[in-house]
Amino acid sequence: MGAGDFESRWLRPDVNAVWTRFLQVTHRLEHHIDRRLQVNHGITHTQYEILVRLADGEEQAMRMSDLADSIVTAKSAVTYQVNKLSEMGLVERHKCDRDNRGTWVKLTPAGLERLEQAAPCILSLVRELFLDDLNCDQSAELDKLLGTWSDNLDEHDRNPVHRPDH
Amino acid sequence: MGAGDFESRWLRPDVNAVWTRFLQVTHRLEHHIDRRLQVNHGITHTQYEILVRLADGEEQAMRMSDLADSIVTAKSAVTYQVNKLSEMGLVERHKCDRDNRGTWVKLTPAGLERLEQAAPCILSLVRELFLDDLNCDQSAELDKLLGTWSDNLDEHDRNPVHRPDH
DNA sequence: CGAGGCTGGTTCAATTTCGAACAATCCTAG
DNA sequence: CTAGGATTGTTCGAAATTGAACCAGCCTCG
């Protein structure tokens, strides 16, 4: 490693280790779930996520944009996936009453059924890999961490684009 | 929500909330970093990661497979990105002495320079968004969490593919 | 009103990722 | 020594994601 001042140019070694481990773990988690979901239930993790959010929404429906926000992905990706799910018959588009440009995406009975088939599989996976229901301490700690991360991101999104370097 | 037994079919509500928040936060984090890196330094987050791992490796070089493992991505994706980086002149392929099928990927001076340009930007981002150097409690807690997650994943990978449902 | 700006969704080309198939090399047991 | 199995890296086609461009409907302020 070139120059060795850890003050500002580099992360403190332990923090750096935590960061890279974080990246690895999150990727492995996603991978694992995605694979399981595709092999056992024929849907992607993102598709599964869409079904979940729809099931949570009132009327088992949701706007495209809200969906995109809650999945944290580009709007175009949502259109793509909703088209796919629609072709599979798991989801239906409806016109939105109060806003003529909006479209409601609604879970079909088949969609709900598919979700209920898949859910136990990945929920048990979440329990085994991520967070066992029983361990409340970790849950609380993690919740706090997620809170600060979320706040940090909100703040960054609120502020205009930084351009401090280069 | 359809049937209401939280015992085994569904996650406990708070755990569920933590899980979805975790997914959202990780995606937002990746997005944020990726965007910043592309706008300010013309490289993807994965490309940046590759440069980082190479810089860490001895001789500033690494095998393709190890690279794929440490980035947690498909081997083919690594070949693709290494080709890109090679075209950019940030990286070079060399034959591996001890293993004729292996290839070493080595950081070029230009690659190191590019990395050193980009690093401060995203490291400060990591500090601001993810983990400030100063907060040791959180760091320790997070480290513990990452450890258990990592172990869980190892165990799951070690065991043959489960097929508990359907 | 009604012109400008904002928001919701889709389309499109480009990029990236993935997994399966493959060839080449290594390694180990017999 | 060698045959069979594992590992390494690439290629290939298919799928997914992205951002920008775009249209349409909303909204507000003059």
TrEMBL record, chains A, B:
Pfam families assigned to the protein according to its UniProt record, in alphabetical order: MarR
Gene3D superfamilies, per database record: Winged helix-like DNA-binding domain superfamily/Winged helix DNA-binding domain (1.10.10.10)
InterPro entries attached to this UniProt entry: ArsR-like_HTH (IPR011991), HTH_MarR-typ (IPR000835), MarR/SlyA-like (IPR039422), WH-like_DNA-bd_sf (IPR036388), WH_DNA-bd_sf (IPR036390)
Keyword terms: DNA-binding
GO biological process: response to stress
Keyword DNA-binding belongs to the record: yes
Family matches, as SUPFAM superfamilies: Winged helix' DNA-binding domain
The keyword DNA-binding is assigned to this record: yes
Residue ranges the record marks as coiled coil: none
UniProt domain HTH marR-type: residue ranges: 15-151
Protein name listed in UniProt: DNA-binding transcriptional regulator, MarR family
